[in-house]
């Protein structure tokens, strides 16, 4: 399968200034996303996982320029979105859409479903006005709602149904890339599965590419082709699904995976409990961001920033940012809890 | 999934949330006795302003500017309900004719101040950054002036007339609106549906007028209803200082000023216009409070 690059993120940084003092000068920055690079190929699903505050949602928002990125290149089909003017950017917005976490906050309570979808098509001039009504009903059916519900208001729907409306809105402009920002996190588990299946069906039907942002490893395992693990604004490990779940290399990834509950009560599993809390992104730790909580940390981790790299025993495209991948794998280094 | 709705008839009763919230608003307002009293008073005052002069001109011989020096400074009697002033003009007639002027000042100045203030507030809250700083510091400067002094300065520059009073009081209402609207805009702007519309490539104009403004109407309405009272008071204050409507216009503030000279021998000349100002301001204030409680029950304490 010849994979075509759809989205390429290079050196993306998103710093939020902290203003303080009498004159409101910038005293410091929250480094929400600090120099990350990755590529998404057409038709695949890439997930970003990590704890709260690791910058995964900010990454999604920076790609769409809902937040202006501080630095870096976001290339969509060869065009650098970060360098476009606001006006030029509007044209490209058609090709990438976002589905939000909170189905209750993501639809204007004063608009009917039809007017939400109609507005989306009007903004991007997708269809002439007289053909939009038919398209709206078609879209509702596509996402599993009924055409006669088009003239209802958001409060008449359940959370899962609202999320479907959000999906219909994203689909209405025929995008290629959809960023799902915790798209199922706020839903009941049973509804989660339905929405995930809907997303998968839509992917097949319309050849969509997903950037799936989530903290739920179960969901991520179900839907992803490739997974990016983030911690404090940096990528810790990036790999295809099998490699990441079966052969994790970074100590942080291992700790995350050990937190997945196993349905077999007899199976003994080593649970890696990390010490302490996530450090502040205002003054992130030097060297490896994870060294304050890593059971393997050494002097080198405090001073040197590890690069993403592939070592022996790792598949192609599997990269981890740790100085001691080999030593940990061979058992030469033992965790120091 | 949608199974649960499949059985619903297609003709299910549609509920418009806008209509629903209006109904809820009316129900809450109707429960508030003070607000209902204020509302009825306002309606009577409006009725008086528009029908009163017509009745007087058509069914009586009283004219607001007709002098009768033989009967000057008469106390209230059956012939002159509120008495007469220093030119022998019937005070009751003048009070009725002045109602319209007072309401003009109240409504138009709040309208002007509201429109400008809302625009400043939304732009400030939506764009933030430097624009926000500049606009809000400007508003702070306006707020730092005592209201009447600011209006006085504006009228002094523009010259004394009813229109200029309206403009002055309007400018003086701008910062109050701008502040309230900025705060509400900040909270609405953060909602995800605003981001969704932005991700669709909507223009800022559309976001501001279609998605933000309708969702911040409640605080604007509350602010407007409370602000009318202040505007009327300031307008009357300016007229009292001789900077508003020019004589012989039957403006209440101006009448108060005329009556001031005869406070001891004929107190009624100042009393009745003053009483009317109190009544109108009171009506708008308690009505405004009621509207606030009905629109935002959480704020009540």
From TrEMBL, chain A:
MF term (GO), any: ATP binding
Domain of life the protein comes from: Bacteria
Gene Ontology biological process terms in this record: peptide transport; transmembrane transport
CDD domains linked to this entry: ABC_NikE_OppD_transporters
UniProt xrefs under Gene3D superfamilies: P-loop containing nucleotide triphosphate hydrolases
Pfam families: ABC_tran (PF00005), oligo_HPY (PF08352)
ABC transporter domain: residues covered: 7-257
Keyword list, A-Z: ATP-binding, Nucleotide-binding, Transport
PANTHER family in alphabetical order: D,D-DIPEPTIDE TRANSPORT ATP-BINDING PROTEIN DDPF-RELATED, TRANSPORT ATP-BINDING PROTEIN
Similarity section: Belongs to the ABC transporter superfamily.
Protein name as annotated: Dipeptide ABC transporter ATP-binding protein
Origin organism lineage: Bacteria, Bacillati, Bacillota, Bacilli, Bacillales
TrEMBL record, chain B:
Compartmental location: Cell membrane
Matches recorded under CDD domains: TM_PBP2
One Gene Ontology term from the biological process aspect of the record: transmembrane transport
Species in which this protein is naturally found: Planococcus salinus
NCBIfam families documented for this protein: Opp2C
Protein name as catalogued: ABC transporter permease subunit
Keyword entries, A-Z: Cell membrane, Membrane, Transmembrane, Transmembrane helix, Transport
Superkingdom of the source species: Bacteria
Coiled-coil stretches: none
């Amino acid at each position: 399968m010849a994979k075509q690059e759809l989205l390429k993120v290079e050196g993306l940084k998103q710093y939020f200034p902290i203003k303080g003092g009498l004159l409101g000068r910038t005293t410091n920055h929250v480094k929400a996303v600090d120099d990350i690079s990755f590529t998404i190929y057409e038709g695949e699903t890439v997930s970003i996982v990590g704890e709260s505050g690791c910058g995964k949602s900010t990454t999604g928002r920076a790609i769409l320029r809902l937040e202006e990125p501080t630095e870096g290149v976001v290339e969509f089909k060869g065009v650098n979105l970060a360098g476009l003017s606001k006006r030029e950017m509007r044209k490209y917005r058609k090709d990438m859409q976002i589905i939000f976490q909170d189905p209750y906050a993501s639809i204007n309570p004063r608009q009917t479903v039809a007017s939400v979808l109609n507005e989306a098509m009007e903004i991007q001039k997708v269809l002439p006005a007289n053909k939009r009504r038919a398209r709206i009903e078609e879209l509702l059916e596509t996402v599993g709602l009924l055409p006669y519900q088009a003239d209802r208001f958001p409060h008449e729907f359940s959370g899962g149904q609202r999320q479907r409306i959000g999906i219909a809105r994203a689909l209405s402009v025929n995008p290629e890339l959809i960023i799902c920002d915790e798209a199922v996190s706020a839903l009941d588990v049973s509804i989660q599965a339905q929405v995930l299946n809907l997303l998968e069906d839509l992917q097949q039907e319309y050849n969509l590419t997903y950037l799936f942002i989530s903290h739920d490893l179960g969901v991520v395992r179900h839907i992803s082709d490739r997974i990016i693990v983030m911690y404090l604004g940096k990528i810790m490990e990036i790999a295809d699904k099998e490699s990441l779940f079966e052969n994790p290399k970074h100590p942080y990834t291992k700790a995350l995976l050990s937190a997945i509950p196993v349905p077999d009560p007899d199976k003994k599993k080593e649970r890696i409990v990390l010490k302490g809390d996530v450090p502040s992104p205002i003054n992130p730790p030097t060297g490896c961001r994870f060294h304050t909580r890593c059971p393997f940390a050494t002097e080198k981790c405090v001073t040197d920033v590890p690069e993403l790299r592939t070592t022996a025993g790792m598949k192609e495209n599997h990269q981890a940012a740790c100085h001691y991948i080999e030593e940990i794998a061979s058992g030469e280094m033992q965790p120091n809890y | 999934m949608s199974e649960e709705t499949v059985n619903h008839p297609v003709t299910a009763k549609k509920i418009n949330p806008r209509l629903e919230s209006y109904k809820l608003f009316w129900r809450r307002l109707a429960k508030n006795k003070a607000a209902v009293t204020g509302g009825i008073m306002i309606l009577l005052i409006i009725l008086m302003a528009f029908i009163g002069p017509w009745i007087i001109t058509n069914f009586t011989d009283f004219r607001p500017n007709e002098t009768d020096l033989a009967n000057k400074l008469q106390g209230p009697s059956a012939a002159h309900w509120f008495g007469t002033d220093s030119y022998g003009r019937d005070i009751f007639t003048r009070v009725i004719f002045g109602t319209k002027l007072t309401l003009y000042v109240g409504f138009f100045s709040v309208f002007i101040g509201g429109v400008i203030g809302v625009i400043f507030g939304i732009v400030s809250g939506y764009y933030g950054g430097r624009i926000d700083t500049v606009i809000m510091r400007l508003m702070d400067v306006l707020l730092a002036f005592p209201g009447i002094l600011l209006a006085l300065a504006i009228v002094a520059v523009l010259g004394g007339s009813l229109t200029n009073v309206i403009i002055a009081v309007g400018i003086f209402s701008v910062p109050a609106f701008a502040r309230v609207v900025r705060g509400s805009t900040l909270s609405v702007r953060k909602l995800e549906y605003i981001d969704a519309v932005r991700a669709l490539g909507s223009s800022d104009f559309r976001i501001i007028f279609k998605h933000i403004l309708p969702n911040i109407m409640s605080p604007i309405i509350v602010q407007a209803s409370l602000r009318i009272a202040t505007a009327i008071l300031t307008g009357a204050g300016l007229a009292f200082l001789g900077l508003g409507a020019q004589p012989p216009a039957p403006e209440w503030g101006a009448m108060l000023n005329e009556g001031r000279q005869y406070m001891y021998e004929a107190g009624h000349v100042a009393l009745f216009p003053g009483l009317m100002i109190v009544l109108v301001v009171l009506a708008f204030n308690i009505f405004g409070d009621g509207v606030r409680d009905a629109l935002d029950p959480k704020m009540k304490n």
